[in-house]
Amino acid sequence: MPKLLQKPRVIARYQRDLLTKLLPACTTLQQAQRELSWIQKELPREQWEQACTQRGCNLMPLQYILGNQPFGSVNIKCRPGVLIPRNDTEEWCGELVDLFHGSDTFSVLDMCTGSGCIALYVATELSNVTVLGGDISQDCISLANENIDLNKDIIKGKISVDSMDLFQPLAGEKKFDVVVSNPPYIPTRELDKQEEVEESVRLYEPRLALEGDLPVFKALVTYHIIPSQCKIFMLEIGSREQGQYTRSLLNELWVVGLRLDSAFRPRNVIGFRTDIKSSIKRKVMSKITELL
Ligand SMILES: C[S@@+](CC[C@H](N)C(=O)[O-])C[C@H]1O[C@@H](n2cnc3c(N)ncnc32)[C@H](O)[C@@H]1O
Question: Which CATH architecture has domain 71-291?
Answer without folding.
Answer: 3-Layer(aba) Sandwich (3.40)
